[in-house]
Amino acid sequence: MPLLKLDTNVTLDTEQKSKMLGELSQLMSKETGKPERYVMIGIAENNAMLFAGSAAPLAYLECKSIGLSSSQAKNLSASICQLLNTRLSIPQDRIYIEFSNCPADFWGWNGSTFG
């Protein structure tokens, strides 16, 4: 049930996108303690975006999960920012991440919910 959506103005080639999907999936599983079989990752790249009036490399992410704690959010922020800086050369101060803890009753899957 962890979901991570990445929007960036950086252009990724097919190999970069594939690697980033895998690395983010493993990172989300590890940091949330949830099986990777429930992790969903989405990447929208080469978007028209500005941050602080500049079109320099940037990223906005939405991170949602059932039972997401503030300590997990803090650890995820550090891990995600480091990964995006290393792999995509996005400065960490040009990354916003929105974290959401979703109640199990409001997360649907397989014709029902987790609650």
Q: In order across it, which strands form the biggest sheet?
A: 2-1-3-4
Q: Would you give the CATH topology?
A: Macrophage Migration Inhibitory Factor
Please give the oligomerization state of what you see.
Answer: single chain
User: Would you report the number of β strands?
Assistant: 6
Q: Please report the distance between the alpha carbons of the first and last residues.
A: 12 Å
- Name of the CATH first level: Alpha Beta
Q: Percent of residues in helical segments?
A: 25-40%
Q: Approximately what portion of the residues adopt beta-strand conformation?
A: 25-35%
Mean pLDDT: 97
Gross geometry:
globular
CATH architecture: 2-Layer Sandwich
Main sheet attributes: strand count, strand direction, barrel closure: 4 strands, mixed
Count of helical stretches: 2
Radius of gyration: 14 Å
Structural class: alpha/beta
Number of domains: 1
Characteristics:
single chain, 115 residues, alpha/beta, Macrophage Migration Inhibitory Factor, 4-stranded mixed beta sheet, two-stranded antiparallel sheet, 2 helices, 33% helix, 27% strand, globular, cytokine activity, cytokine
Description:
The protein has 115 residues and is of the alpha/beta class. It has one domain (2-113): Macrophage Migration Inhibitory Factor (2-Layer Sandwich), CATH 3.30.429. Helices cover 33% and strands 27% of the residues. The chain has helices at 14-32, 70-88, and strands spanning 3-8, 40-44, 59-66, 95-102, 108-109, 112-113. It has a 4-stranded mixed beta sheet, covered by helices on one side. Strands 5-6 form a two-stranded antiparallel sheet. α2 (70-88) links the parallel β3 and β4.
